[in-house]
């Protein structure tokens, strides 16, 4: 997968949120290493496992997943000669108890969660290791019963300490008047009494320490020295016996290194799966159907990090594989791209996604996005330059099964050249078989989508009354920008708005006279690409010819089938499919919709001779592929029951 696009779509932020739900270092590492997959069976398995885990959590189950606290440290020291401590063995015993609990828990869920329950059968309980640790270590210390030798030594230590304590208490009783306080303590493991400095010579013994003020001297009396030596020897024997026990346990644990590694892997897998399930619950996410046929249907898709957003419906892969989305600024076009892209890579990561029932996602081999201006001060790139640099990579990597997400294609440059470049880029990306979702403000791209096989228009809905975006995507229709209406509502002066409309009208008139209207002749619904690579000289010739044609059209009063016209009442362009009737009504097709319009509401735009070659078959435009097949078949022979049905025009 394209790493830059994953970052653009904020995949790493999703992984960070997911990681918060993992409890072990192995589970967190699995989250860090998570990447979208491309093999359908593997993705389906991962999603089904996550769904099973989510169902268990929703039933109120408390899953005993080990935290693996202290285990990473223990495993890192395997085979180094390190002697594990009592705390280390306590961590191992706790881990093995958790493994046993997890194994039993999953065995009880074999019917309701068969996929994830299967992992538990690999868990090794290692009862002999756990029992040995429990016998030797209790409350974080080596127990007296760990060995007979240790038990015997500790009994002798108890006797030696009692004799020592009685002896030192007798000394203190005799010299109570010269003591700073009536209590003994230890310095360096040896017993001492606190003697006032001026009387310290009255006690025969060794000075081992003194107070900060110097007023108290801590002396080990010679009378207890022999008992102290005896105790030290016993303590030395105890330490040696404890080392033997710890060494035995260390050897026992290291012998099961492979089994422990397997247990860690299995529990880490459970931690990872249940982390995905816990995160899915916070999103209200669910599993979706998956396919490798290129069909995608997103019902009520929601971006995981946008709370309260209006769910998005989107469908590609049946009749068309690419969408051109139009609509006003702040209308949510970019959100559509980010939501679709992010949910796609989340689904391909085996995660549940926030969509509604009936959704189905296809598997893409790669998801490449160009969203945002991508400006780089270091590289001195403008918005347009930065986007083109990314588009260059798209053109190189595009192929069948790749999803391309492009926000405001060719924005930030001359509109005329931007339109031409956009169409050429989209044609090439489509030729390579990629799925393309692109947002744009270029009206000409709406015509391109309507006329080109594999493309479909879509628009972000906008409330014309309140001039507020509705954040709903409607497929099959092109949108408008509403820039001037929005500007007026936001307080721009009336004279500025009025002047803007004058300029827009002037631009539209110039566009009719210029090369912009020639785009329709560069592509057809059957995907036949025209000559888009015009030289500067040819471009000027086209502009001059178009200017002349507009002047001549002003004298025309008759509309021919195939002529392009402007419907003044709607402010939209269409193609004449039926000549003027006795009532003055002309048949015009706008965005695949046929309607009858009074000839007085029509203005010439381009004649059929300018748009199409001589003897062009207009059935390609006005009739469906199925109808054309039926008509050709009828021309060759009679077929019983074969009919062509036309919908009534509005």
Automatic annotation (TrEMBL):
Location of the DNA mismatch repair protein MutS core domain? 5-309
Which keywords annotate this record? ATP-binding, DNA-binding, Nucleotide-binding
Coiled-coil region: none
Question: In its keyword annotation, does this UniProt entry include Membrane?
Answer: no
The biological process GO terms on file are:
mismatch repair; negative regulation of DNA recombination
Q: GO molecular function of the protein, one example?
A: mismatched DNA binding
DNA damage as a keyword of this entry, yes or no, is: no
Q: Which InterPro entries match?
A: DNA_mismatch_repair_MutS_C, DNA_mismatch_repair_MutS_core, DNA_mismatch_repair_MutS_sf, MutS, MutS2, P-loop_NTPase
- A Pfam cross-reference name: MutS_V
| Entries under Gene3D superfamilies matching the protein | P-loop containing nucleotide triphosphate hydrolases (3.40.50.300)
Domain called DNA mismatch repair proteins mutS family: residue spans: 320-505
NCBIfam families from the xrefs?
mutS2
Q: Quote the protein name from its UniProt record.
A: DNA mismatch repair protein MutS
- The source organism is Paenibacillus etheri
